[in-house]
Structures are given as C-alpha cells and as structure tokens.
Design brief:
351 residues, alpha/beta, Rossmann fold, 2 domains, 8-stranded mixed beta sheet, 13 helices, disordered N terminus, binds NADP nicotinamide-adenine-dinucleotide phosphate, P5C_Rdtase_cat_N, transport
C-alpha cells in the first residue's frame, strides 16, 4: 500500500496544548480495527503509544483504569478489562503468564477474536506447553497468535529504527496471523512467519539465549589462551626463575600475552578450516553428499564465522601489543639514558 508507506510514523505535535502525553499524537484512521491491550505495565504503555502513532484506535483494559489512565496517550481509552475486551477486534495480552488465568471471565467477550500473547518466560523451556499454548487452552474460542515478545518496551517506544525490526509470529489460525502481520508492518516492523502455534516455545525461548552461536568459539578462545599462557609462563618465566634465580616476572602482562596471542589466533584459524576437511573426508567415505553430517560437525561447520572472527581478534590484539612493546622498550631506554647522564654529570662535578 504505497499511500500507507508514505504516511509518517510520528505525526506533528500540533501547536495546541500538547503535554508529555502528546509525544506521538495521531488521528486514528476510519475503518482501522480497534486494538485492545490487557494490562497497563511498561509493555502496554509503549505498545499503546506505537499503535496510536500508527493510526489505530486503542482501548486499554485495566483492573484499575482510574489509576493507570494518566500514563497513556490521550488518544487511547483506558477502561475496565471487560469493556476493552468487548470493544476491541484484536487484543494484546500484556500481562504476565501467571496472571492469564485471572482473565477467564473475559472468555465470552473474547470469543472469535484474535489474542496476541506477548509473554516471555523466565528460563529456557525445552518441553511444552508454551505460555501461548496454555493461553489457547484457556481461550479455546479465540485465535491465539504468539509474537512481539522479542521486541522490548524500549524498542516499541523508540520505534523500530532503534532496535530489532523483526517480529516472530506463529498461530494455528492463518487469518489471525495475517491480521497481526499486517498490523506489524503498519507499525514499521518486519513480521517473520514461524508457522503453527507449536513453534511458540521456540519464540518464547529466543530472548533468553545470550549470543547463542558465540558461546563455543569464545570458550575455545579462552581455553586456548589459558593453555598457551600457562605454557609460555612456565617456559619463559618460571623455569629461568627456578633454574637460575632470574626474575623476569615483569614480562607477564605484556610480553607473555603477546607471545600467547598468535598461537591462539593460529589454532583458531586452523579450527575454521578443519571441519571442512572432516566434511570432505566424510563425503568421500560415504560416496555421497546427500547424507547428513553428525550434529557436532554440523554445529562446528555453522560456527566457522565466529571461530574466524575470534582468530582475527587475537591477531589484531597481537598487532596492538607488538606496537606497544617497542614503545615500552624506548621509554625504558630513555629512562636509563637520563639516569646515566645524571650519574655521569654528578661524578664530573665531584672530580
Ligand atoms: P508489568 O509492567 O509488570 O505489567 C503487567 C500488568 O499486568 C500490570 O500493569 C497489570 O495491569 C496487569 N495485570 C493484569 N492482571 C494482573 C494480575 N492478576 N496481577 C498483576 N498484574 C496484572 O509487566 P510488563 O513489563 O508490561 O510485561 C507484560 C508482559 O509483556 C509480560 O508477559 C512480559 O513477558 C511481556 N513483555 C514485556 C517486555 C518489556 O520490555 N517489558 C518485552 C516483551 C514482552 P493493571 O493493574 O492495570 O490490570
């Protein structure tokens, strides 16, 4: 829809009495669905702002509408949960999953409507049912869509320019999912269809993974660094000290680290190419390229970029350390020179 794309996300604030609640004022478009939000927490407030700015009519359902009303943009109506459920065509459930069961009295009002479950878990769950599936069991007459849980309240408030633009969605109802996808696009996000509601567990786990593909390469880098550092420390520092009482412990922070880094970089680089050799060998052994590689090799092959980048980081650090070394040596030389000149000057004066 080209006219929709041309419409600015944030409307002008107008000359009138726009207070802080007018941050992103917009006029709701006729014919646009009424969007309901249950809950008045951080997520609900940011979502309401973004929806209002995108031209939607928003109705928020709260257990205490009088208390929460002032926190929302003026264009959004804050009312009771039942009133919001009755008015809305599509409802975001922005309450924690533990409190989903307190919403069952809204069942008749929500029947036949789309419910968007935005909840996140507190820890990674490997087995279902997911929160979205539990919500679908609670509201069998509604169409549950899982999504928006990977978008933070901050991103919603700042707009998609300042965070991830992808919104992962799944649902057993194609129609409900399509309507949420359309809403997503209008808010400036990029919907990603993840299929049926059975994928909701995966979507709920997504925000809980911390740099998932980086864990093993970083662990490898650290372990290799510790191994090579201990080896160099024993060979260059501990052994001369024990054998001849020569104390070179000052080498520990720079020189020993500098000797260690290239070893780590080279081994990490070897780890980038090694799985390719294993894969080629296996394919020759099997006589076909259509067999699946074992899981460990598959994970290793897909992590080669991260291994390579860790190797590159070590090489860059080695270059920086190598540049620092002559500086340290020249400073050392200048200091000795100055001391020597001072001593020589004094001895001349004495003579
Ligand atoms: P919050 O600030 O604690 O708000 C939760 C809201 O739930 C309350 O304001 C309350 O509103 C409502 N509620 C309804 N029934 C309730 C009950 N029985 N007990 C307590 N509260 C009840 O939480 P939030 O940060 O907005 O998160 C809401 C949901 O969004 C969660 O499922 C969370 O996982 C998800 N989420 C949040 C973020 C984020 O950045 N915050 C991001 C992604 C997903 P009333 O008192 O007005 O009824």
């Amino acid at each position: 829809m080209p006219d929709e794309m041309a419409r600015p996300l944030i409307r002008g604030r107008g000359g009138g009495g726009g207070g802080s609640r007018h941050l992103e004022a917009s006029v709701s478009e006729p014919g646009a669905p009424v969007i309901g939000i249950l809950g008045t927490g951080d997520f609900s407030r940011s979502l309401a702002r973004r929806l209002v700015a995108s031209g939607y009519q928003v109705v928020v359902g709260s257990r205490a509408p009088k208390r929460s009303g002032a926190l929302f943009p003026e264009e959004a109506e804050v009312t009771s949960q039942m009133e919001a459920a009755n008015q809305a065509d599509l409802v975001f459930v922005a309450v924690f999953p533990e409190h989903h069961s307190t919403l069952v009295e809204l069942k008749p009002a929500l029947a036949g409507k789309t419910l968007v479950d935005v909840s996140n878990g507190l820890q990674i769950k490997l087995d279902g049912p997911s929160h979205a599936e539990q919500l679908a069991d609670l509201f069998p007459e509604s169409f549950v869509v899982k999504g928006f849980n990977t978008i933070s309240a901050w991103t919603l408030q700042m707009g998609p320019r300042d965070g991830s633009r992808q919104v992962f969605l799944c649902s057993d109802s194609h129609k409900a999912k399509s309507s949420v996808m359309q809403l997503c696009r209008r808010m400036g996000f990029v919907p990603v269809d993840m299929g049926l509601l059975s994928s909701s567990l995966e979507i709920e786990n997504l925000p809980l993974y911390l740099f998932p593909s980086w864990r093993i390469p970083i662990l490898c880098t650290l372990l290799l660094f510790i191994f090579f550092y201990l080896y160099n420390f024993t060979r260059d520092i501990l052994q001369p000290y024990i054998k001849s009482g020569k104390s070179v412990f000052y080498k520990m922070p720079i020189e020993t680290v500098n000797v260690t880094l290239p070893s780590v970089a080279l081994v990490m680089l070897a780890l980038v190419y090694l799985p390719g050799l294993f894969a080629a060998f296996l394919q020759l052994w099997w006589g076909t390229k259509y067999n699946r590689f074992p899981n460990w090799l598959d994970r290793w092959l897909t992590g080669r970029k991260q291994f390579g980048l860790c190797s590159f980081l070590c090489a860059v650090l080695h270059a920086i350390y190598s540049l620092c070394l002559p500086l340290r040596k020249s400073a050392h030389f200048k200091l000795l020179n100055a001391a020597f000149k001072q001593v020589r000057g004094r001895s001349r004066r004495v003579r």
